[in-house]
Amino acid sequence: MAGHDHPLFTLVYRAVSGAGERTGLGELRERALAHATGRLLILGLGPGHDLDHLPDEVTSVVGIEPSASMRTSAESRVAATRARGIDVEVVDAVGEALPIPDDSIDSVLLAYVLCTVEDVDAALAEVRRVLRPGGVVCVMEHVRAPEGTWLRRSQRLVAPVWPRMAGGCHADRDTRAALARAGFDVAGLRDITITSLPPVAPTLVGTAR
Ligand SMILES: C[S@@+](CC[C@H](N)C(=O)[O-])C[C@H]1O[C@@H](n2cnc3c(N)ncnc32)[C@H](O)[C@@H]1O
Questions:
Q1: Ligand 1: residues whose CB is within 6 Å?
Q2: Distance 63 CA to ligand 1 centre (A)
Q3: pLDDT along the chain (209 residues), means of 10
Q4: Beta 202-208 vs 131-142: how paired, if at all?
């Protein structure tokens, strides 16, 4: 979609997330996806690393991705997932307006995407609309650090330039509060710190229902 393609960021993110697969990010993706089942919606498919960590209970995937260069970078993983017998549909759309029927999704993956969507509340309202009653939201998002910490200070320091450097990403969103505001039970979410760039180290992982 116009305005969502950042080819340089795609190149950098693809390299960084590819390296991360071998240094802990892959394990984190597996942990986040552990409770995914049935038809899985991946919001912000990116280069598609999550496809390499789908549990057997996932039967089909719809990946929402508004960036053409990201869709291209995901092509080989999409093809490999289809070859494993899992249907994957990649859709050029945004989380704020999902072209998906109500109650038609069994599980949703939010991985490093709520930092980037323009309207978090609108995207989460859409997630609620398409998720069937009893469905699960798998979460793996970098989030705002607690006030008074050096991680929070690092986020404040980079805030003026970070979105321009990182494809529209905001390093300091309170994603737990946004999920709660959208009506999700957030008791299954845990705060962890992953060893990476300080502004994106504080991470929320687990499930919301
Ligand atoms: C940092 S990448 C993360 C990709 C992937 N989920 C992962 O964990 O590696 C964020 C992705 O969200 C996409 N994106 C940006 N705005 C979006 C929106 N409004 N709705 C859905 N996806 C969006 C970007 O194009 C990008 O591919």
A1: 4, 13, 17, 43-44, 46, 49-50, 64-67, 70, 94-96, 111-113, 116-118
A2: 10
A3: 87 92 92 98 98 98 98 98 98 98 98 97 98 98 96 95 92 97 98 88 97
A4: antiparallel
> Going from the N-terminus, what domains does the chain have, and what CATH number goes with each?
7-208 (3.40.50.150)
Q: Which two tokens stand for residue 42?
A: 């991946």
SS3 190: strand
Question: What residues contact 206, with CB distance under 8 A and at least 6 apart?
Answer: 32, 139, 188, 189, 190
How far is the CA of 182 from the CAs of 59, 128, 170, 178, in angstroms?
Answer: 27, 8, 19, 6
H/E stretch holding 133: strand 131-142
SS3 124: helix
- CA atoms 12, 115, 43, 203: torsion sign: positive
Contacts of 72 (CB under 8 A, 6+ apart): none
From CA 127, how far away is CA 108, in angstroms rounded?
A: 8
C-alpha to C-alpha distances, 93 to 22, 36, 64, 111, nearest whole angstrom: 30, 22, 6, 17
